[in-house]
Design a protein that fits this description.
Elements (H helix, E strand, L loop, with lengths): L2 H4 L13 E5 H7 L3 E2 L1 H7 L8 E5 L9 E3 L2 E2 L1 H9 L3 E3 L6
Parallel strand pairs: 1-3, 2-4, 3-5, 4-6
């Protein structure tokens, strides 16, 4: 029997998962800040201290004007932020 069939099967666990976080539009609405960056989210307790990258996902509603600095956003979240009058200044992805 070949070796790959005799060895136990193992899944994949990303080592970067501990350093990434997601924030929803509803959480940004409740935050109450006009300019949001990584330090603001850490101070508010929305992300853990060891997080290095944050992405905003489209879940909830955003009615206020919010400006994101150095935070990524999904296509739907970016459209919702810009529709509310805000803007997204995301940093380029690290290689």
């Amino acid at each position: 029997m070949p070796l790959q069939r005799r060895l136990p099967k193992r899944g994949f666990k990303s080592k970067l998962k501990a350093y990434a976080a997601e924030v929803t539009l509803g959480e940004l609405e409740r935050l109450g800040k006009d300019e949001v960056d990584l330090l603001t989210l850490k101070a508010a307790g929305l992300v853990r201290e060891m997080v290095k990258t944050v992405k905003v996902i489209k879940s909830g509603e955003l009615k206020r004007k919010v400006s994101l600095k150095g935070i990524g956003a999904t296509v739907g979240a970016k459209a919702a932020i810009e529709a509310a009058g805000g803007k997204v200044d995301a940093v380029p992805a690290a290689e």
